[in-house]
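Lecture notes, unit on protein representations.

Consider one protein chain, 263 amino acids long.
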Amino acid sequence: MKAYSANINIMMGAVQKARRVLVRDFGEIENLQTSRKGPEDFVSKSYDKVEDILLRELQKSHPDYGFLSENSGEIEGENKEYRWIIEPIDGIINFTHGQPFFCVNIALEKCVDGEAPEIIAAVVCAPALREMFWAEKGGGAWLETEDCIRSRLRVSGRKKIEDSLLAVDSYANDVKKIGAVAEGFSDIRCFGSTTLSLIYVAAGRFDALIGHKFGYGDVAAGMFFVKEAGGALFDTKAKDKIMESQSLVAANADLSFQILKRL
């Protein structure tokens, strides 16, 4: 089996330590559902613990790199070329309610003067699903199971909407907008985790995703996986302004074209 690169090794190590905390804390969630206070305070502490682990472990390897995290915001580093993008718990509402569709993710962004920043590597772990995903620029996107079985991710090859499974994000806020677009798909899913939804598009488990209203940490790693798995990414106006418009369409090229025509 091919060895990991230095960047993937660093991210894998950090995510594995965070994973152990999340597995343990997720095991306590069910007991807290029936308590008077509920699990919210417990979940908030879990989020903070995971963020601290990621920051500490990544800083050990590259203390000069910057960070961007939804909770802590931007932490500038001396090295302006590289920045870690972290999301301690994507799908936190699922986590809070004892649902297994949540993940921890790290992406490494490179910024060269005069060029737009780009993600060059990413690792995503879904602890309750026992799956680890990793990708590197030009090296493809991969799934690694707990049994050390490695398989390459590729987007679905389906070309007809009527054969395809559509994932939607922020569905409750966009029922009218998405409803007309979703008509004719074989079925629809709302996952509650933008990162995992994008990973599932990269793995061909979902044929397409329509997303709205997200932060950079929610999509940075996931979009990179879709690209490395051969997929296409646009905003809902068929442009490359995903963060500006806070909208995205992810699928193979054929389905993307059909969805964008409907939008």
